[in-house]
Predict the structure of AMP nucleosidase.
Amino acid sequence: IFHYFFMRKFWFLYQAKAMVIWPGGYGTMDELMESLTLIQCKKLRKKIPIVLYDSEFWNNVINWNYLVDKGVISKSDLNLFQFCDSVPDAFNFLTENITKTHIQGPNF
């Protein structure tokens, strides 16, 4: 049990080899944005593949292209995650990326 939420998020990312983000509310979005920020700012030494499950949900909740158009994120930031709409698609994406980054890559 964590008494402070920031410590929970820190350990969450520290131990993670990948993330699958399911539709959720403020807490889910907070953890997603914290993770994307740390990855985008290169504060993590490891690459963490991120799956946003249910593209319809995520594209309705967050207008990613609008963020790019307004210049608050870059187009390349959209490559920090992958939308998946089925368990097999998510599994294939994660298997391929975890193999590259954590087994054959420099983090092994």
